[in-house]
């Protein structure tokens, strides 16, 4: 087999130990499942024991390896305990996906309270910092040959979103931290990247009315919302040895939502004008 054939598979992820936060549903669940299905040892972290344990159990039932560790990712002590537990259970750590995050939006900046600031920054920013810090230490101690940190940011970390001042601030921060850390760890062969989902069908939209969901699909140049697994495919690639030279990147998975402005109409093609 030549080198291209040997390396263009996801076999390189087999046996890697990875932590996925917010693994109980949505994008985190899809990432945990795809990692488990590809032979990674997955430490699933979430607050809900019932939902988080169910994800770990399902991975094991399908022939994979996974454990669940109940974690509130906005609590830095629990984040340290999560990483320590992963290392004591599997003996090493190769990667971490900081995915747990909350959305907050729909109002102009002045309508947010100071408590909104604390709530969202505690999880989306401080929790991600803690995850990166403790995981980086553990990956370095493990002498991983294929170490990686992945942060699930947002297209709001690339392009500010109206009505989402605080969410946008946290996600710009995550993208910034990702890039700075990529510079820190490049000499140690640990890649650090951000996945930036666009509108993705998960419970993050809570009880948003059907009208809002229809708007999201229409607002996206691709005409539809994304599926959680479409982010998970990228997470698998970034965990593999095919992506060892990709680091410091903030990669949209968004059907071209953040690619540019849709304001200029297709004036030469009136048949496709919306
Ligand atoms: N769905 C989208 O359209 C979209 C778009 C851009 C970015 N994102 C980002 O993707 C990530 C995942 O979101 P999702 O869409 O899957 O949402 P979701 O609400 O379906 O899932 C969020 C996950 O995070 C967990 N979580 C929330 N608070 C937590 C805490 N304090 N401690 C531990 N876990 C906690 C939840 O239990 C759940 O497992 C988030 O960081 C979000 O900002 C989502």
TrEMBL record:
Matches recorded under SUPFAM superfamilies: NAD(P)-binding Rossmann-fold domains
PANTHER family: SHORT-CHAIN DEHYDROGENASE_REDUCTASE, SHORT-CHAIN DEHYDROGENASES/REDUCTASES FAMILY MEMBER
Family: Belongs to the short-chain dehydrogenases/reductases (SDR) family.
Protein name: SDR family oxidoreductase
Organism: Blautia celeris
Lineage, uppermost ranks: Bacteria, Bacillati, Bacillota, Clostridia, Lachnospirales
């Amino acid at each position: 087999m030549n080198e291209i054939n040997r390396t263009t598979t996801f076999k390189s992820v087999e046996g890697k130990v990875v932590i996925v936060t917010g693994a109980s549903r949505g994008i985190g669940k899809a990432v945990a499942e795809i990692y488990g299905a590809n032979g990674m040892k997955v430490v699933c972290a979430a607050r809900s024991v019932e939902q988080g344990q169910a994800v770990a159990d399902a991975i094991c039932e399908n022939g994979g390896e996974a454990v669940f560790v109940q974690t509130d990712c906005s609590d830095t002590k629990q984040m340290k305990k999560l990483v320590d537990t992963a290392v004591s259970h599997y003996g090493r750590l190769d990667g971490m996906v900081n995915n747990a995050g909350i959305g907050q939006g729909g109002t102009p900046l002045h309508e947010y309270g100071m408590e909104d600031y604390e709530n969202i920054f505690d999880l989306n920013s401080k929790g991600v910092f803690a995850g990166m810090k403790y995981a980086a230490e553990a990956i370095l101690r493990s002498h991983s040959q294929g170490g990686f940190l992945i942060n699930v940011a947002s297209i709001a970390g690339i392009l500010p979103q109206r009505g989402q001042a605080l969410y946008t601030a946290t996600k710009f921060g995550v993208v910034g931290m990702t890039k700075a850390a990529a510079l820190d760890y490049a000499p140690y062969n640990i890649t650090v990247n951000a996945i930036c989902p666009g509108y993705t069908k998960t419970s993050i939209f809570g009880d948003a009315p059907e009208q809002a969901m229809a708007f999201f699909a229409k607002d996206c140049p691709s005409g539809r919302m994304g599926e959680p697994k479409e982010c998970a495919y990228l997470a698998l690639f970034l965990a593999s040895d095919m992506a060892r030279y990709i680091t410091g990147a903030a990669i949209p998975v968004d059907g071209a939502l953040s690619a540019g402005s849709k304001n200029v109409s297709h004036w030469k093609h009136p048949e496709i004008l919306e």
